[in-house]
Structures are given as structure tokens and as C-alpha cells.
Specification:
Elements lengths: L2 H41 L2 H16 L6 H16 L7 H16 L1
Length: about 110
């Protein structure tokens, strides 16, 4: 078996292992956060519980990432960027433009 095939197989196993490690770490962190939130809710006063409930209701109602119209726009613009028809701009440039237009709107 040629050396480069063995090397690719080792890299693939390593990548799969790294992916598993990252997923395990994220899942453990989420589990810990869930436990902390449960403990907090059990001891929170009614004002905090009502506030958290309202936040959850708003989040439940705003499933914009599942909206087919928005997803089709995102897919279309991604395809335009990847094809080279549209040139992206760096985040810092976009940020300056947004802040500049925001300042003009306030004046």
C-alpha cells in the first residue's frame, strides 16, 4: 500500500477523533449549563421566572432560521458570492458603513 494512502487514512481517523472530542466538550458544557439554569429557576422569585418564560416564548415564536423565504435568500446570496458575481466586503468595512449610516440617521 503506498505511503500517501496510509497517511490519508490516519488523517481521517484523527479528524474524526477531533470532531468527537469537540462534540463531547460542547455537549458537556451544554449539560452543565442546563443543570445550572434548572437550579437557578428552582430558587428564582416569580419576577425572574416570568421574565425567563417571556424570553422563551419570544424565542419559540421567532424561528426565522426555518423560514423558507429567508433560507432561499441566504442560499441565493451565498451562491452569488461563491460564483464571483458578488464581491464581499470585510467585516470592518461593513461595520464602518453601518455605524456611519446610523449616525446620519440620528442627526
Amino acid at each position: 500500500m503506498p505511503y500517501h494512502l496510509i497517511h490519508v487514512r490516519i488523517q481521517t481517523k484523527t479528524l474524526q477523533f477531533c470532531k468527537f472530542e469537540i462534540n463531547t466538550t460542547v455537549m458537556n458544557a451544554l449539560k452543565q449549563m442546563r443543570n445550572e439554569v434548572k437550579k437557578y429557576i428552582d430558587t428564582a422569585d416569580s419576577k425572574v421566572v416570568k421574565m425567563m418564560h417571556a424570553m422563551l416564548e419570544v424565542e419559540k415564536e421567532s424561528d426565522w432560521w426555518r423560514d423558507e423565504d429567508i433560507l432561499s435568500i441566504v442560499e441565493e446570496r451565498t451562491a452569488e458570492y461563491k460564483s464571483g458575481r458578488v464581491k464581499g466586503i470585510p467585516w470592518e468595512t461593513a461595520k464602518k458603513q453601518i455605524l456611519s449610516s446610523k449616525k446620519k440617521a440620528i442627526k
